[in-house]
Amino acid sequence: MTETESIAYDVVVLGAGPVGENVADRTRAAGLTTAVVESELVGGECSYWACMPSKALLRPVIAQADARRLPGLAQDVQGLLDTPAVLARRDDYTSHWKDDGQVAWLNGIGADLYRGHGRLAGPRTVTVTAPDGTVTTLTARHAVAVATGTRAQLPDLPGLADVKPWTSREATSAKAAPARLIVVGGGVVATEMATAWQALGSQVTLLVRGKGLLNRMEPFAGELVAGALTEAGVDVRTGTSAASVTREHGTVVVETGTGERLEADEILFATGRVPHTDDIGLDTVGLKPGSWLDVDDSLRVTGTDWLYAVGDVNHRALLTHQGKYQARIAGAAIADRAAGGTLLQEPWGAHAATADHHAVPQVVFTDPEAAAVGLSLAEAEQAGHRVRAVDVEFSSVAGAGLYADGYTGRARMVVDLEEEILRGVTFVGPGVGELIHSATVAVAGRVPVDRLWHAVPSYPTLSEVWLRLLEAYRDN
C-alpha cells in the first residue's frame, strides 16, 4: 500500500451517484474546488441498477398494456413482448454498465474524480484507497458531503447466501427472464419487478407479509395494483412470508410461514434498504458505523459544522429526485456558509429542504401507475390536521375514456379544513405519473382550494380529474 501526499479541496463528496453529482455541480457552480470519491460506477445505483434500468424494463410493458385497451390496436399487440429486445434497450439505458459519459460530465463541471473506497479519517479528512492499493488523503476546507446511498436489506434466514438470491440489482440487470420467479415484498421494488418480469415471460409469485401492497400509500392504491397484477397472471399471496429458503439442484425452494412449499428458478427479496455507511469511517468522527445520519434542513449532520449527509443516507425520503433536491439545497448551503453569507433556513427558504416534510412526490410504475405527493389521509390525521378526503373515479373524466377503453383509476385529495389547502393527493390509473407534478405544485405551493378552482384543466385530458375533485369537495 502506497500513501500519497494530502490534497486540499473546498469540498469533498463521498459517492458519485445522482445525489453526489448534484452536490458537486452546485459547489462547483459556486466556485468551490470539489473532489468526488466513487468506489463503483459514476452515476450510482439509479443509473445502473435502479431507476433507469427498471423503467426501461417497464416502459414496453406499460405501452403494451395501454395498447391492448384501444380498439384498432388491441388485436395487434396480444402476443408476448420481445424480451431480448426489451433487455437490449435496458442495456442501452445503462450504457452497458460503463460510466464514460458520466465521468465526462463530472470532468466537464471541473470536479476531480477519485476512484476507490473513501473513508472519513477524522474531521474534514477523507482517505481514498484506490484499486491498486494507493491511498490518497483529501482534506476539505469547508465541507464533506456523504452521499453513499443505501443497499438492499436481506432477511436473516439461515443459508440464504448460498441460495444467491436476487436483490434489486440482479432484478434490474438480469440477462434473461427466469421461468419462475418468487418476489418477496409488497413495496415499490416488489410490485414493479413483479409487473416487469411477469410480462417478460416469468411466472411470478408475490409473497407479501402484510395485508396488502404499497402500504405507504392510500389503501386503494395497493388494492388496484394487486388486482391488476392478479389479472396479469401474478400469484399474489398476502399475509405470508418466506420462513426458509434453500436451493436444491438449481431450484429455489421456499417454505412459507403457513407451511407451503414453493419452487422457482430465482427469488427476489425486496424487503427494504439499509444505509451504506458501515465502512466509511463514521467512528472517526464520533458517529455509529452503519447508521442513518441525522441532519437539519440544510442537510448538515447534527452536532457538526462541516459534515453533510445528502440523499438516502439521511433516511428523509429514499427517492432519487428527492435526493437531488436535497443536493441542490445542501450545495447552496455549503457555498453560502463558505462565503460567510446568511442562510435562508426558514421553511421553504433557499437553504431548507422543506419539501422533505410536506411535499414528497413518488410514482410507482406498475399497471396501473400509482402516484402520490404529501400526506395520506391516515398520515394527515395522525399529524393532528383536521382534514377531509375527497375521492373520485377517473371514469368521470372524458380524457380517461379516450385514453383507454375500460380505464380504471381513482383520485383522492386530502384537504386541510382549517387552512383550505391540500395536504396530499393520490392518483392511481394508467398514465397518472405525468399528472402528479400538478399535485406537487399545489401541495408545495400551499395553493388555496379556492384558487385551484381557477386553474382550468384542458379538455379532454386526464387532468380534468382536478375539476371533478374540486366539484366533489364543493358539493359535499
TrEMBL record:
SUPFAM superfamilies the record matches: FAD/NAD(P)-binding domain (SSF51905), FAD/NAD-linked reductases, dimerisation (C-terminal) domain (SSF55424)
UniProt entry tagged with the keyword Flavoprotein: yes
Coiled coil regions in record: none
Disulfide bonding pattern of the chain: 46-51
Residues reported to bind NAD(+): 185-192, 272
Superkingdom of source: Bacteria
Protein name: Pyridine nucleotide-disulfide oxidoreductase
Lineage of origin: Bacteria, Bacillati, Actinomycetota, Actinomycetes, Kitasatosporales
